[in-house]
Automatic annotation (TrEMBL):
Entry-linked InterPro entries: LanC (IPR033889), LANC-like (IPR007822)
GO molecular function terms listed in the Swiss-Prot or TrEMBL record: metal ion binding
Keywords: Metal-binding, Zinc
Entries under Pfam families matching the protein: LANC_like (PF05147)
Keyword Metal-binding recorded: yes
GO biological process, one term: peptide modification
The protein, known as: Lanthionine synthetase
Native species: Nocardiopsis metallicus
SMART domains xref list: LANC_like
Lineage: Bacteria, Bacillati, Actinomycetota, Actinomycetes, Streptosporangiales
SUPFAM superfamilies recorded: LanC-like
Residues that coordinate or bind Zn(2+): 263, 312-313
Length: 411
């Protein structure tokens, strides 16, 4: 165990009850350190779980990163003999929630209205609810319904302005009524965009969880990313979002890639494409995705990118993406290059922390996320906490024995 990881674990040994972060928030609150300790020492996790639930439970803002779904996800990593009744209750709530939200989403599609992030994405939408179900009820009809809805989301949506991609949102990226986005936008990233949907469909497909049209949906999403792929002297990259469904109509030229981040940048998008290549056994797709990851690292080194250490936007997220990509490589040459890049970033992350780390316990942007990355092992029996980020899955993890049986009708 590295010196920095040891220090991070000790700094998160006991809950800080004075923290201003919402207790039931997995992104910034007490549930993040609880998940970290469940990876190392479940006894240390219990005080954090107690702190997270001390203010009571709420059904408000039910997302993968907040509330009961977040708690269900975290407790799924607890030893089987702990929190048994709580896990069962949370799973029932989660499955009911998934059925309700998929029905609502289908009604919206039937009315030919465009969605918001909160309907479909990883952070606050049904993709995130699906991730929690992958951990708690991986063979349930609830997960089946999420998959069915996401397949439908990839189909063109007829609107009064003509057909749009089904995931086209009618607001700006930050939801602040930005006048630069009068007709909304299409997000390509992992956290709020189609790469999250692509990774989710691909991970489930590879794990044997199939619904009608799933392969076609994976192909459609890859084709959309093909349209928006750009390149420079280092290799391929993608923008985080675009303001038109067609590249030739894009009003602002896309001539510079963004930061090498998991949430919006090329690392998350390329990992989603690598997972799609593995799911479809399309080794060309997988190879080009891995090449894009290497290009991203080379570009970051050349530009001396100064990201923070965070999981969402910074070097921890880049490192975790590379760790998983290296483990799933398509060719030996690419694997060696990915491994070298991974080792270099990991060595840098193990060095002295940046200023401000001691006050932020967060998973997405603070100490917890960095500690989880530094403690990641890629063995076949290692718990994949980064299912949370759609970077990995555990196909053999299941609390239920029955397989998904594909249906053609919707709930």
């Amino acid at each position: 165990m590295t010196t920095r990881l040891t220090a991070l674990l000790e700094s998160l040994a006991t809950p800080d009850t004075a923290s201003a972060a919402p207790a039931l928030c997995l992104a910034t609150g007490h549930l993040g350190p609880a998940l970290l300790h469940l990876m190392h020492d479940p006894d240390r996790a219990h005080p954090w779980i107690q702190a997270a639930t001390s203010g009571g439970l709420t059904t408000d803002r039910a997302t993968l990163f907040y509330g009961l779904p977040a708690l269900a996800f975290v407790l799924s990593y607890a030893p089987e003999d702990r929190y048994t009744r709580d896990r069962a209750l949370l799973t029932r709530h989660l499955t009911d929630l998934a059925h309700h939200r998929t029905r609502t989403a289908h009604q919206r599609i039937d009315q030919h209205r465009t969605p918001t992030y909160s309907e479909y994405d990883l952070i606050s939408g049904l993709t995130g609810i699906g991730v929690a179900l992958m951990r708690t009820a991986p063979h349930s009809t609830a997960l089946e319904q999420v998959l069915t809805y996401l397949v439908r989301l990839t189909e063109p949506l007829p609107t009064d302005q003509g057909h749009k991609p089904g995931w086209w949102v009618h607001h700006d990226p930050r939801m602040i009524n930005d006048p630069a986005f009068p007709h909304g936008h299409m997000n390509l990233g992992m956290a709020h965009g189609i790469s999250g949907v692509l990774a989710f469909l691909s991970l489930n497909h590879r794990a044997g969880r199939h619904v009608p049209g799933q392969q076609g949906a994976i192909r459609r999403l890859c084709e959309t990313l093909d349209l928006w792929q750009r390149s420079d002297t280092h290799g391929s990259w993608w923008p985080g979002w675009v303001t038109t469904p067609h590249p030739e109509q894009q009003p602002q030229p896309l001539n510079r890639p963004g930061p090498p981040s998991w949430c919006y940048g090329t690392p998350g998008i390329a990992r989603a494409r690598q997972l799609a290549g593995r799911a479809l056994q399309d080794y060309t797709l997988q190879h080009t995705a891995e090449h894009a990851l290497l290009a991203c690292v080379q570009r970051a080194n050349h530009q001396n990118s100064s990201n923070d250490d965070g999981l969402c936007h910074g070097s921890s997220g880049l490192l975790q993406t590379l760790l998983r990509a290296t483990h799933d490589h398509a060719t030996t040459t690419q694997a060696n290059e990915l491994a070298q890049a991974t080792d270099e970033i990991q060595a840098a992350l193990m060095k002295s922390p940046r200023s401000g780390e001691a006050t932020d316990i967060g998973l997405l942007e603070g100490r917890t996320g960095t500690a989880l990355v530094l403690s990641t092992r890629t063995g076949s029996h290692t718990p994949a906490w980064d299912t949370l980020l759609l970077l990995a899955d555990e196909p053999h993890h299941a609390h239920e024995p029955a397989p998904i049986r594909a249906r053609t009708s919707r709930a």
